[in-house]
Amino acid sequence: MRNVPLYPAPLRHRLSFRSGLAVGLALLAAACSAPQINLLPPPPLHPNGGVLWHIVHDLCLPDQQTNGRPAPCIAVSLAQGVDRGYAVLKDKHGAEQYLVMPTLDITGIEDPRVLAPNAPDYFADAWRARTYVEALIGKPMPRQDMAVSVNSAYGRSQDLLHLHVDCLTPHTVAALAAEAPRVGLHWSHAPITLEGHAYYAIRLDGDAQAADPFQVLADGLPGAAKDMAAWTLVLTGATFEGGAPGFILLAGRADPAHGDFASGEELQDHDCAIAHAG
Questions:
Q1: Which residues lie across from 100 on neighbouring strands?
Q2: Cis before residue 72, ω within 30 degrees of 0?
Q3: Complete domains list, the chain, with CATH
Q4: Span 78-105, pLDDT tens digits
Q5: Beta strand extents in 49-150 (DSSP E only)
């Protein structure tokens, strides 16, 4: 028996067109809701990029191991061994800024070891280290005033992973307070503008940070896992509806052609004006 079309030819053509249009619109919507991945030039070389590794590896670590004193660092944690340890150093920039760095030679956000199974959560170590900042300020700080940032390979000068621990700028605190009710448990479809640059945002619940921000970025934003060098992360405390404690994680991608080097440290205030206001 000859096959008889279910629909007349003109209707079949209209259905085919509509189906194709629907698929096309869905793909366009998905593309518009995801970060636009533009090809970037290679990250710049960092001529003096070994300074922090020298401080940690040649000074703080051996002093801790030999003498029980981590100088010039303020602390070196080796409770889980050197491969999972970290050092805390007062940065020379800023009144209260500290850096948290691995005692292993992890180069930066792009190093595959930050995404390895059971990798140390350096963000959790850095968030706890905010107490050193508060000690210099002389008082506890509201969680929403504090942040931990990691710059991209385009926006840093050192080739040892280092997390900046310091206050946020007053403008950033105010902007995130206004934005917090709209930050959900999935990455935002559209970025928010902070200090003139685009950042995607996601909410993390809990008083203590549970999810590793490196993994949240790699798993949640399209293409990020293969493009980690281009990204910066900023983790800040937050208080959500009903007084629930949590965090807002921000992620920005470098766009050197337009002056954005993905340096999330720009959201931090190394004079910590918010601590001394009023």
A1: 88, 163
A2: yes
A3: 51-276 (3.30.428.30)
A4: 999 999 999 999 999 999 999 999 999 9
A5: 75-77, 86-90, 98-102, 146-150
